[in-house]
Amino acid sequence: MRICENAMSSSLGGVLRALTAWIIGGLFVAHLGLGLVTNLTFLSPIIENPARTYDEKMQVKWGAYYASVRFVKEGTPEDAAILVGPGWNDTMDLYFLFPRHLFYGGEQVLQAHPEIGYIVVNGNFPDFAITGQKIMLDDQHGLIQIQSR
User: Fold this and answer.
1) How far apart are CA 143 and CA 31, in angstroms?
2) Most buried residue, 12, 20, 103, 148, by CB count within 10 Å?
3) pTM of the model
4) Which of 12, 117, 135 is nearest to 68 (CA)?
């Protein structure tokens, strides 16, 4: 009788282990599938037409933000120090504008960092007086090259 109880107990343990493994595996596959769908949705504008140039793909994906970033990138040297105000995405700014040095803030940051040579114009920013050459992408976005301070 004890042999039968031990066999039944070990059989039940094996079933529970198998059931647990099946549930965990199912959750893993479901999570993997959801992640794949999310990534494909995120990338679909980019992969719809593989013949597009890098700039065309980024413009489709990021819209006006990419146009502004590209304008700043083309209007500044690689070793530029740039003051960026509110409304920008600091993670993507670093990606698109590397190796330029970015400073986030306002007039206090500008005063604390004399190496800053450019200010990104974004809507009402900068909201303080600055002397320099202003080059605009459109009526809301542009770049100011600061005169020597």
Assistant:
1) 44
2) 103
3) 0.66
4) 135
Print burial letters for 44-67: b (CB count within 10 Å at least 16), e (below 16).
eeeeeeeeeeeeebbbeebeebbe
- Phi/psi at 147 (5° precision): -70, 160
pLDDT band of 128, cuts 50, 70, 90: very high
Look up residue 28 and give its two tokens.
Answer: 């893993």
Q: Which stretch, 9-13, 30-34, 36-40, has highest mean pLDDT? A: 9-13
Q: 77, 78, 73, 79: which is closest to 120 by C-alpha?
A: 73
Surface-to-core class of residue 8, CB atoms within 10 Å of its CB (0-12 exposed, 13-18 middle, 19+ buried): exposed
Q: Per DSSP, what are the bridge partners of residue 120?
A: 143
